[in-house]
TrEMBL record:
Gene: accA
Domain CoA carboxyltransferase C-terminal stretches: 45-298
One annotated GO molecular function: ATP binding
Chloroplast recorded as keyword: no
Protein name (record): Acetyl-coenzyme A carboxylase carboxyl transferase subunit alpha
Protein origin, superkingdom: Bacteria
Entry EC number(s): 2.1.3.15
Amino acid sequence: MNTPERKPLLLDFEKPLFELENRIEHIRQLAKENSVDVSDQIHQLEQRSVQLREEIFTNLAPTQRLQLARHPRRPSTLDYIQSISQEWIELHGDRCGGDDPALVGGIGRIDGRSVVMLGHQKGRDTKDNVARNFGMASPGGYRKAIRLMNHANRFKMPILTFIDTPGAWAGLQAEELGQGEAIAYNLREMFRLDVPIICTVIGEGGSGGALGIGVGDRLLMFEHAVYTVATPEACAAILWKDAKKSPQAAEALKITAEDLKELGILDDLLPEPLGGAHSDPLKASNILKTSILRHLSELDALSPQQRRDRRYQKFRHIGVFLEASA
């Protein structure tokens, strides 16, 4: 019995490229069936395909980058953890009665070194997304995260966090269980930890939900990831009472990696394979691992006090601006 071929999940701006690649494949099949040599024509079309891919993915608008950051097949926290580590043991529970599947974490080993890794986890399909609450962590998730980070600090293991959430869970029960307090507690406690902390935005970094595991010595971010105080849709709804103005909001919010690098918030912009991280997850993982090991080596050269001081100063300088004189 033949299994049905899985259709690609295409974004609007990817359709011209997909149509061209389909055309190349169709010509190749016809030539094979009729024993005709069309290698020159196929070569020209393949060159055009490479050129078109470069044109599309090097000139993306902020809203298009947001679409890529939310792509259902974009590598997730668990994908990266399993790819960059030789060993991985997931740990569960916040020791207060809950275990939030939207925020996962545990102990792993990278190049022989023990580290604690944790991050937001989205689902691959609707059922999985519902189970993981679309990567929106509850208070229990953030309490589990700080428990694991304290464990890392106790045993002198570096902390790697992976950010990929539209925001913290904003449900009534989340508020009843102390969502704001849980995130605020994490923000305070992460500043006092002695061990190196490297935070990476792998997809969508939204609001306090991202910051709850985002206080670190270094902030890394993939090329097509986004990091924002509020989703463009929410911002547009608040400012203009019209979610359709989200492209305008995305432009104003400065959500892209290039914007954050220019503003001095980002420490390292990680290039993605042409077509996005989901087009070549293994290559994206290798890029991430190389960057993490480099930054860990630099942070190892600092004393715990120096790391804490620099971490504090890093965040004190975020948001500082100068007004133009009259």
